[in-house]
Specification:
The complex is a heterodimer of chains A (360) and B (190). Chain A has helices at 69-95, 99-122, 145-163, 168-179, 182-185, 199-220, 224-248, 255-285, 294-304, 311-349; strands at residues 9-10, 15-19, 26-34, 38-45, 48-55, 61-67, 125-131, 136-138. With 360 residues, chain A is of the alpha+beta class. Helix content of chain A is 59%, strand content 14%. Chain A is flat. Chain A contains ten helices and eight strands. In chain A, α6 (199-220) runs antiparallel to α10 (311-349). Chain A folds into three domains: 9-64 and 130-163, no CATH class; 69-121; 199-349, no CATH class. In chain A, β7 and β8 form a beta hairpin. Mean pLDDT of chain A is 82; it is low at 354-360. In chain A, the strands form two sheets. In chain A, strands 1, 2, 3, 4 and 5 form a five-stranded antiparallel beta sheet that branches. Chain A has a three-stranded antiparallel beta sheet with strand order 6-7-8. Chain B has 190 residues and is α+β, with helices and mostly antiparallel strands. Chain B folds into three domains: 1-52, no CATH class; 54-109, Cysteine Rich Protein (Ribbon), CATH 2.10.110; 119-189. Helices cover 32% and strands 11% of the residues of chain B. In chain B, a hairpin with a 2-residue loop joins β5 (88-90) and β6 (93-95). In chain B, α2 runs parallel beside α4 (164-189). Chain B is flat, with a radius of gyration of 29 Å. The mean pLDDT of chain B is 87. Classes of the chains: A alpha+beta (360), B alpha+beta (190). Chains A and B meet through β4, β5, β6, β7 and α3 of A and β2, β7 and α2 of B.
């Protein structure tokens, strides 16, 4: 008996399709199947299947766009692995963890590193779109560049059987004809750019510089007032940082100033994490402390954790000092440079108004 | 979408110079790496829809749905005469709108089907997942057997597969039911 020919053959690739807007309310498993005269896109959710058919005669193009998602995933996984190793070191130093702590944290770090390796082996990530005369559909199953290429190479002969082939010369001629109509049809819309004076950035960078003062004093003196002062400055800096990040979005402020503001966010995140680890260590080492009383906690942190006695605290202080000083000074220098350039540009185009207009 | 235009999928800027390039090309506007494969239909004009010719003499056959229009073909589903407007071509078949609608409802036109409930998957899920909270299996195991038997002949996924899921569901659910019968029986005997 002759073997029955299969209706559909699976294309490589698997992925999840987000359902919902900015926040996905659900995800469906997406896959692609080659049919006799069409490409079937199947979305599976529990025991429900949804289908979309793209007939080979209607497919106009495939667009494969490289993304940085794979690199971001690798970065996050590497940071997690580093944090696990840091935890193992801190555990050994403060909690007296033995080999077991190293094994557990090292095992988790190794797992993260393994994931990094697998992710790197899978190759660069991409977003693949299919275009017909009436739609442009994302194909969520093709998330890796290599897989997308493989899938398109398998589809190409089927589409060319249905539509014929295009020689490079034909593409050039047709494109030249089409490109005559494009500028009239799609005028490039310039993005509106607002001017940002950078007042909040300035306050943020001054606060970062000022933050180094209580840090330096904290190295030599152990007093609750210093810890309180440092915490208040950090809190104010965080507030300014959030406002600055909002204000710089879609503004004309330079990339360097933007970058420094984002690095400041990362710096505060790391400081918060390290501070949290230190507070956990103190709580474990001093079980008599009432953890619900923040004032008592702060007093203990200021008095019992002296930078002169602990190399870890000293290291933390130096880390904070170097970052706050360099971010503050670099940020202020670049901000003043940006303001000077802006003033020059304004005076060049509007010689009558010598003074730059106030920031928006 | 517009005929002959390919725009960057990120910044929507027209990209006419990068079509069918063998390697990655960079969008001049947003700088992302892209590869674009195009096919002849990109440059093809869309065919305008046909409206059907008006009857000129009484001797000509007219459309069943539009008596004033000339019939050009018969419906392969019901045999009615159809004008060019009413003729719908699907999988090399010429159908009227009524046959198309009923064919979709009855599931006879497989190519129009865009949603399916996969009962074999449902039965297997009912047989396996509740094992995590095992007391629920007193309800879910018989339910899994019921679904497997009730929908044994129902079409499964559009990607053809065997009855393996149904068989596994009946097997697992049957074992659970047997376990419950044994457990309840022991309670009564002791």
């Amino acid at each position: 008996m002759p073997k029955k020919e299969k209706d559909y053959r699976r294309l490589p690739g698997r992925g999840l399709r987000r359902i919902g807007g900015a926040v996905a309310v659900a995800k469906t498993r997406a896959s692609l199947w080659l049919g006799k005269d069409h490409l079937l896109s199947m979305d599976t959710m529990w025991f429900m299947e949804d289908y979309k058919r793209f007939y080979y005669r209607d497919i106009q193009a495939f667009l494969i766009r490289k993304t940085a998602r794979g690199k971001i995933i690798n970065l996050v996984l590497s940071i997690l692995a580093a944090l696990m190793l840091l935890l193992a070191v801190l555990g050994g130093a403060f909690w007296g963890w033995g080999r077991e702590g190293w094994y557990i944290c090292g095992g988790i770090a190794l797992f993260f590193l393994l994931m990094v390796g697998i992710n790197a082996l899978m190759g660069p990530t991409c977003i693949c779109h299919l275009q017909t005369a009436v739609q442009r559909e994302e194909l969520p199953s093709l998330t890796r560049f290599r897989t997308a290429r493989k899938a398109v190479n398998r589809l190409k002969p089927l589409i060319e059987t249905a539509q014929g082939t295009l020689s490079p010369e034909e593409i050039q001629i047709q494109s030249a004809q089409m490109s005559q109509n494009i500028p009239a049809a799609i005028p490039p819309a310039p993005k509106p750019v607002k001017h940002e004076h950078g007042r909040f950035h300035e306050i943020l960078f001054y606060l970062l510089l000022f933050d180094s003062v209580p840090i330096v004093f904290d190295i030599f003196y152990d007093h609750v007032a210093l810890t309180l002062c440092s915490s208040l400055v950090s809190l104010a800096a965080c507030g300014m940082m959030i406002i600055a990040l909002i204000r710089q979005h879609g503004s004309d402020i330079t990339r360097f100033v933007r970058g420094i503001t984002w690095v400041t966010l990362g710096y505060h995140g790391v400081i918060f994490l390290l501070g949290y680890i230190v507070s956990v260590v103190i709580t474990v080492q001093n079980p008599e402390i009432n953890t619900n009383n923040q004032w008592e906690m702060m007093k203990v942190v200021s008095t019992k954790m002296s930078a002169m006695e602990s190399p870890w605290i000293m290291g933390l202080h130096f880390f904070a000092l170097i970052f706050s000083l360099s971010l503050g000074s670099l940020g202020l220098a670049s901000l003043y440079r940006f303001r000077r350039d802006y003033r020059v540009a304004v005076s060049k185009y509007h010689p009558s108004s010598e003074a730059a207009p106030a920031g928006t | 979408m517009n005929r002959g235009w390919i725009t960057c999928s990120k910044c929507k800027v027209p990209l006419q110079d990068f079509l069918n390039a063998p390697d990655l090309t960079v969008c001049p506007s947003c700088g992302v790496g892209m590869q674009i494969h195009v096919f002849p239909s990109l440059f093809r004009n869309l065919m305008p829809g046909q409206t059907g010719d008006t009857l000129l003499t009484d001797q000509e056959a007219s459309c069943f749905y539009h008596p004033q229009k000339k019939a050009v073909i018969t419906c392969e589903g019901c045999g009615r005469f159809l004008c060019a407007l009413c003729d719908v071509e699907l999988n090399e078949q010429h159908l009227c709108s009524t046959c198309l609608e009923s064919g979709k409802k009855k599931g006879k036109l497989k190519n129009l089907e865009n949603h399916r409930m996969v009962y074999d998957g449902m039965a297997l899920t009912l047989a396996i997942v509740p094992l995590l909270i095992w007391p629920f299996t007193i309800i879910t195991a018989p339910a899994a057997i019921f679904v497997a038997i009730r929908y044994w002949k129902a079409p499964t996924s559009i990607i053809p597969r065997s009855k393996l899921y149904f068989i596994l569901a009946i097997l697992f659910a049957g074992l659970q039911v047997a376990g419950w019968i044994y457990f309840i029986g022991r309670q009564f005997t002791h």
